[in-house]
Structures are given as structure tokens and as C-alpha cells.
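Q&A FORM
Asked by: J.P.
Topic: structure of DUF2304 domain-containing protein

PROVIDED:
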Amino acid sequence: MAISISVVLLLAILAVVFIRNGAMKVSHAIVCILLGFYLAGTSMAPTISDGLTATAEIVSSLDP
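REPLIED BY: S.T.
REPLY: Here is the structure written out as C-alpha cells.
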């Protein structure tokens, strides 16, 4: 749960930065959000979640 909240927060911050810099329009952000909601309802959602969890575990195990 903490990983998914962190990912959502990171993506939200990136979206705000892109919108403020003019690299992404608000309409593009809305389309991305809708895509995420629809993707979460598909059969691919568990696979994507497992992939993100595995990536987060790999990144957290790295020593700087």
C-alpha cells in the first residue's frame, strides 16, 4: 500500500511540474489519469502492480 501511494504521489508531482513548465497541458494530464483508471480495471492490473512492486524492491535493495 505504501508503495502505491508513493508512486501516485510521485506521478502527481511530475504531472504538476510538467503542467507548470508547459510541457504537458491539462487535457493531456486528464487523459493520462483516465487511462490509469481504466487500466486499473483491466486484467493487466495485477501484473503491472507486481512489476512495480518488484522494481521498488530492486531499487530499495541498491546501496548508494
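FOLLOW-UP: The mean pLDDT is 80.
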